[in-house]
Amino acid sequence: MLDLALKSVIACLPVIVLAAALFHLDSHRLLGTHFLARMFLCGGVTAVLSAVVNAQVIAAYPFEFLDYTRYVAPLIEESLKAAVLIWLFRTNRVGFLIDAGILGFTIGAGFSFVENIYYLHLVSDAHYVTWFVRGFGTAVMHGGATALFAIIAQKLTERHLQMNPLLYLPGLIVAVLIHSIFNHFPVSPVLSAAVTLLILPTLLFLLFERNTVSIHNFLELDFATHQRLLRQLEHGEFTGCEAGRFLLDLEQIVPEAVARDMINYFYLHTELVLGAERILLAREQGIEIRIGAETVAKLEEMHRLERHIGRAGLKMLRQHLHFSSTELWDIHLLDEIAPAPAHRPT
């Protein structure tokens, strides 16, 4: 029993410790622990799905096992993990590059955790070296490959609101290549595990450290931009910006009542995004700003307007007013931390 417990620690603990370390690098606390726990579970589910799909493909096609692990399994497993992240991107649950990396690593950690538990049950008598390779090599590879997919996808899609599958392809290719190269074991398995443990976490830590500065600069710039835009809206200075000129022309495009709702929606959206950025800038200083009843009421009103305007109207607004995915994530953040549940957008 002690032998199995020790092997379990070697196989499962390293990647969880790394995921926790990455989470603590996030000075803005953009992701909650409960949300990350759900993503860890999602990663575990993808491991189960991968096992099912791999078994069916192996049964249906006459692959050599070694060739399958090198060329086919990486594509299936990385695609399933990537599918979870694509859903997160499309539902505005990823705000910045550091979020993407942490979520990707967490999903990969959940995948490797379930996979290693399965192998512990299957071949529990394997030598400790096997569990060292799986814990410090394979598990870190799963987390790192998925994190890199997430980071590349975030970088390519952060300014695009429309779904374009091709933007996710480069990150998927990188993840599959990393997985495939690891499975080739060009040298000894132990050395491959050591190289993986050294390179992937170091790369992620460097990216995160650089992105923390980028987030601060981005927030300050966006905060100033939204402050200026809000002042223009409050004083009726619509002609001072492209968004304002579009809003002035709305009554010629849609009925007056709908145009009024769209203008109110844009005003509330800008005000709430500014509030979310104020919260994030305060978190940098270790200050937690609570959301009050007034903000909750504004969220409710904005979501009511979304339902009234409809999908076609919202699509037109977002195209002409150049909403970014980060702004939509700001609204999602407020929805998540509001003391009372606000209605979700349609």
TrEMBL record:
<dbReference type="Pfam" id="PF13367">
    <property type="entry name" value="PrsW-protease"/>
</dbReference>
<keyword id="KW-1133">Transmembrane helix</keyword>
<dbReference type="GO" id="GO:0008233">
    <property type="term" value="F:peptidase activity"/>
</dbReference>
<dbReference type="InterPro" id="IPR026898">
    <property type="entry name" value="PrsW"/>
</dbReference>
<protein>
    <submittedName>
        <fullName>PrsW family glutamic-type intramembrane protease</fullName>
        <ecNumber>3.4.-.-</ecNumber>
    </submittedName>
</protein>
<keyword id="KW-0378">Hydrolase</keyword>
<feature type="transmembrane region" description="Helical">
    <location>
        <begin position="165"/>
        <end position="182"/>
    </location>
</feature>
<feature type="transmembrane region" description="Helical">
    <location>
        <begin position="6"/>
        <end position="23"/>
    </location>
</feature>
<keyword id="KW-0812">Transmembrane</keyword>
<feature type="transmembrane region" description="Helical">
    <location>
        <begin position="35"/>
        <end position="59"/>
    </location>
</feature>
<feature type="transmembrane region" description="Helical">
    <location>
        <begin position="131"/>
        <end position="153"/>
    </location>
</feature>
<feature type="transmembrane region" description="Helical">
    <location>
        <begin position="96"/>
        <end position="119"/>
    </location>
</feature>
<dbReference type="GO" id="GO:0006508">
    <property type="term" value="P:proteolysis"/>
</dbReference>
<keyword id="KW-0472">Membrane</keyword>
<feature type="transmembrane region" description="Helical">
    <location>
        <begin position="188"/>
        <end position="208"/>
    </location>
</feature>
<keyword id="KW-0645">Protease</keyword>
